[in-house]
Amino acid sequence: MTSIVKSTVNIRIPRCTERGDGERKVLGMTDRKIRIMVAKPGLDGHDRGARILSRFFRDSGFEVIYTGCHQTPEQIAASAVQEDVDVVGLSCLSGAHRYLFPRVVELLKERGADDITVIGGGVIPDQDFPMLLDAGIKAIFTPGATLESIAEWIRENVNV
Amino acid sequence: MYFDKETLEISSELRKKWEDEVKKAVARHPDRKERWSTVSDLEIKRIYGPEDLRNTDFQRDIGYPGQFPYLRGNQATGYRGRCWTFRMFAGMGSAQDTNARWHMLLKQGQTGLSTAFDFPTLMGYDTGDPHARGECGKCGVAIDTLEDFLQLVNGIPLDRITTSMTINPPASVLWAMYCAAAELKGVPLTRIGGTIQNDMLKEFIAQKTFMCPPEPSVKLISDTIEFGTKYVPRWNTISISGYHIREAGSTALQELAFTLRDGIEYVEDVIRRKGLDVDSFAPRLSFFFNSHIDFFEEICKMRAARRIWAKVMRDRFKAKDPRSWWMRFHTQTAGCSLTAQQPYNNVVRTAMEALAAVLGGTQSLHTNSLDEVWCLPTDHAVEIALRTQQIIAEETGVANTIDPLAGSYFVEALTNEMEEKAWEYIRKIDDMGGMVAAIEKGFPQMEIADAAYHFQHQIESGEKTMVGVNRYATDEAAEIPYLEIDDRIEKEQMERVEAVRRKRDGKALKKSLDDLRNACRKGDNVMPFCIEAVKSLATLQEICDVYREVYGEYTDPAMY
C-alpha cells in the first residue's frame, strides 16, 4: 500500500494569513522592547529565513532570542516561558508544521502562557491554514512576505 | 603570455576609441543602473578584452582537457565519450514509495540513482523518537533498519546502477546497509558503485544536520574513506559539497572557497590519522556544486574549481597520480533560486542553470522540479526536469564540443578572478588553523549569514530582481499539483520498525552494538562493526546512539 496522497490545490501566495476575528488588542503604551523568540521546531535545518529574520528583528529594535535548529516543541515552550517572550515565531520548511506548530501552542497553554502570540512561516500550503489557525497560530507568513511586513504585523498585533 | 605585445597594443588603441564612444552614449542615455554585478554581487565590467588576460598563460592556465590544470575538463573526450549522469535526487514516504519512484525514473532514461532521506534518517533518529515526530517521510524516505533498506533497493541491480546517498552524520550506517544489501544479493563489495555525501564540515557550516562534534565527525569520515580505499574501490566515499553552503545564502565565491577548503581538511585528516598515501584515496574524492541563476558566474566557478583542486592536490599534497588531481563533481540546480510565486517559471530557471552546469563540465546532474519550492516533486514535475537534461544533452548541441566557452575574454577573466579570490579565503582559513578551527570560531557561518542578509535586502529594495517576486508579480493563484505525504505514514513506519525489533536475536544485536562501542572507544575503524550491527537488525538510532554516547553530541550554536 502506498502512503502518498496526491491532490491538486490552488497554491495561493497570501504572504500573510490571519484570522479576522476583530479581536485586535489595544496596544500598550510602554517603551519596552518586544521580545521575540525565533524558533526552529523539528529536525529541519533550513535556517536561512529564520536567521535573516532574527537579524532583521534585532536591527528593527526587537529583543531577539534565536533557538537554533532541532528544537522539540517541549524545548521551545519551556524556553519561551523562561525567557518571558511576547512572541514565538516558528519557522518550518520540512512539511512537519502540521504536527509541530499546534503542539507548541498546546504546550504553552499547558504552562499557562497562552498570552504569548505564536506565529509561523515557511513552506506551508494553504490547505493547512485553517487547521493551523484553529490550533491558535495567529498568523502564517509564506513566500513573498517581506521582512518589514512581518515586523509590522508584530508591532501592530503584539501587546507589550 | 596569452596575447602578444602587438595585439595588446592594438587592443589598447581600439579600446580607447570604444571608451570614448561609451562616454558619449552614456551622456545621452545613461545606463539602466549604475552598478552591474552577479547574483553574488561580484561586480562585472561592461566589457572584457585581451588586456584582462594579460597575466594569463595559455600553457599554465588553460591548455587542453585531460591535461593539468584540468581547467577544460578531466576527460580528453569530454561528453562525447560519456555524457554526464542524469541523476535525480528522489525519496519520499516509505522505502516502497521511493523504490517505485526510482523504477519510474530508470524507465524514463535516468542513468543513476540518488537518495533523499527524511529528516529523522538524516539526523540519526528512528521514526518513533520524540525528536522525529511529524517528520517521517516528509522530506525524503524513512529508513530505520536494513529491512527498509532492502525494500528501497528492491529490483535495483547493485552491480550496474550507481547510487548516491545524501546522508551525513549517519553516513557510515547507511553505507553499511548498502554493503550488507549487496552481500545479501550476492554482489561483491568490489563491484558496487555509488556515493555517500558524508561531508560533515558543510553541515556545521550550512546545512545543519549534525550529530557529533566536528572532530569525531571528521574521524568517522576518515574511517569510511579508509574502508572504501581498501574494500569498496568503486565507491565515492565523500561528496564534498558546496551545494548547501550556497543554499544557505553564500556567494558563489564562498561556495567555491569553503568547499575546496573542506576538501583540504579531509585529505589532511586521512593522511594524518590513517597514514594512507594520498594517491591511494584521492581519486575517489568527489565534489558537489550548486548551479545558481547567474549563468557565467556558475560556469567560471566550476572551471576555477577544477584548476584550484588540481593545484592543491599536486602542489600541496604532492599527489602523483593524475586521477588525484581531477575534481569530479555532481551539480544540482539551485533550489533557492526557485520561486513559490508563478511556479512554472521555475522550469525556465532550472533549464538555464542546468545549461550552466553542463558548460561548466559537470559529471552528473540533478535538475530541480518546478514544484520543489512547495513539496516533494510529483511524477509529472520530475519528468519535465529530467527531460530538461535530455533536451540539453541531445538537442541543443552544447555537448558536441568540449568547454566551448574557453578563450572568451570574460569567461577566462572571471574564472581567474574567482580562483584568486578563492585562494584568499583558503589562505585565511589556513591561517585560522584549518576549517574545523574556523567553524569553531563561526567564521564561515557568519560570512554566509552576512551574504544571505545582504541578498535579502537587495531583493526587498529591488536592487536585484526575482521575477514574480519583486517584479512582474501578480495576485493570481497558481494551480499546481501538490504531492502531499500522508501523516499516516509515520504510524505505519513505526509499526514496521516494531515488527523488526520483535524478530531480532537480542544476543547477537547486543554483541554487535557492544563491539561497535568498543571500536569507537579504541579509535578503530567503525565500518566493519557497523556492517555487523545493521546485519543484526540494529536500528539506525541504536547505532547512532553509540556514536553519541562515545563522541558526544553537537547542538546548533544558533548564530545569526
Instruction: Determine the N-to-C terminus distance of chain B.
Output: 46 Å
Major beta sheet, strand line-up of chain A: 2-7-6-5-3-4
Query: What's the CATH first level of chain B?
Result: Alpha Beta
Major protein interface: A-B, 48 and 63 residues
Describe the structure.
The complex is a heterodimer of chains A (160) and B (560). Chain A has 160 residues and is an alpha/beta fold. Chain A is built from 5 helices and 7 strands; from the N terminus they run E-E-E-H-E-H-E-H-E-H-E-H. Chain A has a single domain (32-157), classed as Cobalamin-binding domain (Rossmann fold), CATH 3.40.50.280. In chain A, helix 2 (73-82) runs parallel beside helix 3 (97-110). Mean pLDDT of chain A is 87; it is low at 1-8. Chain B is α/β, with parallel strands linked by helices. Chain B has a single domain (60-457), classed as Methylmalonyl-CoA mutase (TIM Barrel, Alpha-Beta Barrel), CATH 3.20.20.240. Chain B has helices at residues 5-28, 58-62, 78-81, 95-107, 119-123, 146-152, 171-184, 201-207, 214-231, 243-247, 252-274, 278-281, 295-316, 322-325, 345-359, 379-394, 409-432, 435-441, 443-461, 488-503, 506-522, 527-535, 540-551; strands spanning 85-90, 112-115, 163-165, 194-196, 235-236, 238-241, 285-291, 329-333, 364-366, 478-485. In chain B, helix 15 links the parallel strand 8 and strand 9. In chain B, helix 21 (506-522) packs parallel to helix 23 (540-551). The longest helix of chain B has 24 residues, at 5-28. Chain B starts with a helix and ends in a 9-residue tail after the last helix. The interface between A and B is large, with 48 and 63 residues.
Short descriptors:
heterodimer, A: 160 residues, alpha/beta, Rossmann fold, 6-stranded mixed beta sheet, 5 helices, globular, B: 560 residues, TIM Barrel, 9-stranded parallel beta sheet, 23 helices, 10 strands, 52% helix
